[in-house]
Amino acid sequence: MNCFMRNIPYAVSDIDLKRQLRPTLHGPIFEPVFQGGAPFDYRIQLFKGKRGGKSRSRSGILTVPTEAIGLRLIALGSISVHGHAVTFARSEILAQPEQIAMVQGAYQEPVAREQEEQRRAELATHISVSRVQFCWAGFNEVSIEWEKQGSWIVSFDDNRRAIVLQLTSWRIVISTITIESIKEDGDFCHLSLEFPPTLEVEQQTQADNADPLSLRPHRESALEEGQQAIVPFVNVLRLCFADPLSGVAGFKSKMRIIDRSVHGYDGPRPAHRGLFTAHSLGDLQDWCRRQEYPIAFQVHGILCKRLVAPAMLLALIPTLGKIIQNLNSNEVVDILKGFGQIIKEPGEGMGDWNPERFLQFCIDNRATNIARRVVSREEISHLFECYHVTITPTSQLLSGPMPETSNRVLRWYPDYQHHFLRVEFTEENGNKLRLDQEVDHPKFVQKRLGGVLMNGIKVAGRRFEFLAYSQSALRERTVWFISPFSTSSRRLPRNSLLNDADLRSRDSSGRTSYRSDDPYTTR
Fold first, then answer.
1. In this structure, how many other beta carbons lie within 10 angstroms of the beta carbon of residue 39?
2. Does the N-terminal peptide bond of residue 401 adopt cis geometry, omega within 30 degrees of 0?
3. What's the domain count of the chain?
4. Tell me: the pLDDT tens digits for 87-111?
5. Residue 343 burial by CB count (10 A; 0-12/13-18/19+): exposed, middle or buried?
6. Does residue 502 contact residue 523 with C-beta atoms inside 8 Å?
7. Whole-prediction pTM value?
């Protein structure tokens, strides 16, 4: 509601007036009309007075969040400000929705609000970028795996606390909490990322009567086909400024506002190495498919953690082939687990090692490898080694096997438990999928999560399909997947987790097999 104010001292500013009115507006008289428990905010607009005229006062508009507050203020009559009785009346100028929205929140000190508005205005200014690069950094090298030239615009979204890169309808959103470091490299800025960025595509303009919600941008796992191979493994993003001098200075200024430092770049020179291609990823999956599943799962898990490029893992195949031939499966798995740990956190003096030297070190020191959990005899019959896959908006992460409580179906097929997979859907950082009001979230869920559930996933060279879920697990966005297999065992008990008719079929010999062409459901 807008209230018209009269008899305001000419020398009083809007900031001073707001402070003078606060003891009354936030006092006991207005407590019955407080909303939300916190003192309400209000805005003041002063009209220009004529200093040389007869009047030594001026008027203005006071905007309050509700009509109840405005009516109580009018009933109060006046408030003394520096000896002047400032009076209030209903204004003929109706408050607009955007004005009401500005005072819906809790009270904010005028100076603090002014500083915040100035901060937001500075962050909202755009910087021109001529090139954006997606890179993978590891083992003293930075490989440029995707590059796009064009009239990119860099801005800062203060609500999402994110740097936004935009090219026509494409948007690359980098949350500041995922940025490990920012370094200046001539006309480039080098952003080291903990997780891949968020990719969005803005909707094209539709009919005038279209639902506004349908015009929101939607998330994607990749912006174009040539980007798909590298997106899950991006850990460096590089920006080339159109104007190096002003661009770098402007970007540094924005980072100072959000308390992020920009240092000089002292890393290896980036180069186009082509380490992540559909061909190399396919060759690695083919090799995994020919290995024992526990071994293949560890190799694929190392790749998904962005520790080693697929081309590098392919170069290790001769060494892996020797230990697979000479050692048992458990020993090989332990070596691979140690390999994954040591390349993530190399020891002292290992900073310049390459993957081959790390692997050989783990082979030579396999006697002092992974600690195993001690399981009691009572637990053995109720536990199984569970493999986990986490599906994120851009990638998948593998973990396990880890001892977990078994269920009726898994106990019925003890020799095929590695065909079962627990799949979880999360954000890149492992948190629950967020609901962003500025993005068409349902469309993304339908495309990404629905695509996985309908089409299955490939893990360690094997295809897994949706099998079942429980009500408790579904709340945590966790489901079961299965890699189809054949067995001559008896039928499942009628009160098992799954219904036989949905899950199995029999041939003329009585042999039971899982149908890979049928949807798996639960009852």
1. 16
2. yes
3. 4
4. 999 998 888 887 887 777 777 777 7
5. buried
6. yes
7. 0.72
